[in-house]
Write a structure and sequence with these properties.
The complex is a heterodimer of chains A (114) and B (113). Chain A has no helices and 11 strands. Chain A is mainly β and 114 residues long. In chain A, strands 2, 4, 5, 9, 10 and 11 form a 6-stranded mixed sheet that branches. Chain A has a 5-stranded antiparallel sheet with strand order 1-3-8-7-6, with no helix packed on it. In chain A, a hairpin with a 4-residue loop joins strand 7 and strand 8. By secondary structure, chain B is mostly beta strands. Chain B is 0% helix and 58% strand. Chain B is built from no helices and 11 strands. In chain B, the strands form 2 sheets. In chain B, strands 2, 4, 5, 6, 9, 10 and 11 form a 7-stranded mixed sheet that branches. The relative contact order of chain B is 0.34. The chains are: A mainly beta (114), B mainly beta (113). The interface between A and B is medium-sized, with 26 and 28 residues.
Chain lengths: 114, 113
């Protein structure tokens, strides 16, 4: 059972436009949701997070929106830059039993075209 | 990168041989994790540790064991490697008092022939 789903394997966007990456989840026990960015041959790097009790969090060009009733979140990147080209992973955090486990989606490959 | 290193960075081995991957961190993080990344699967948790000598299983723990005898080191062992364990392995760490993010190492690419 896939608890975190990223249904778009890839996305192409023109430089300067908005990139919208989507993520759906099934586990209502997640306390936080995180987005990670990954370049080839490197480890994932943390991008932005949102608490399950919030509906929006913004950090510079990156904004994450959470629709808890729909169990859906999205990452908006505005404006998109060629350096944003990477694989983006959505993850749900469960802090129960003190484990702070992350459950990742399969990722979406973003290509920003100059 | 929160001072996380992994060794080796690349390894090729044969089916049936034991393999140990090492994760080393310099930030005194309490929590450490091992993930594997495979095409079409994203990152999946293998094992994690919540302190020295305190470990637990993740989603895909079969065929793997871990040990943590010091805060800074978290070892992942494949007792008898199989071709299905060919993957990229990532170590991550999280500070107890920090935010919810985990910091990842650069990864180890393991090929089992």
């Amino acid at each position: 059972d896939q608890q975190v789903k990223q249904n778009s394997p890839s996305l192409s966007v023109q430089e300067g436009r908005i990139s919208i990456l989507n993520c759906d989840y099934t586990n209502s026990m997640f306390d936080y949701f995180l987005w990670y960015k990954k370049y080839p041959a490197e480890g994932p790097t943390f991008l932005i997070s949102i608490s399950s009790i919030k509906d929006k969090n913004e950090d510079g060009r990156f904004t994450v929106f959470l629709n808890k009733s729909a169990k859906h979140l999205s990452l908006h990147i505005v404006p998109s830059q060629p350096g944003d080209s990477a694989v983006y992973f959505c993850a749900g955090l469960y802090s129960g039993a003190g484990s702070y486990q992350l459950t990742f989606g399969k990722g979406t490959k973003l290509s920003v075209i100059p | 990168d929160a001072g996380i290193t992994q060794s080796p960075r690349h390894k090729v081995t044969e089916t049936g041989t034991p393999v140990t991957l090492r994760c080393h961190q310099t930030e005194n993080h309490r929590y450490m994790y091992w993930y594997r990344q495979d095409p079409g699967h994203g990152l999946r948790l293998i094992h994690y540790s919540y302190g020295v000598k305190d470990t637990d299983k993740g989603e895909v723990s079969d065929g793997y064991s871990v040990s943590r005898s010091k805060t800074e080191d978290f070892l992942l062992t494949l007792e008898s490697a199989t071709s299905s364990q060919t993957s990229v392995y990532f170590c991550a760490a999280r500070a107890f008092e920090a935010g919810n993010e985990q910091f990842f190492g650069p990864g180890t690419r393991l090929t089992v022939l």
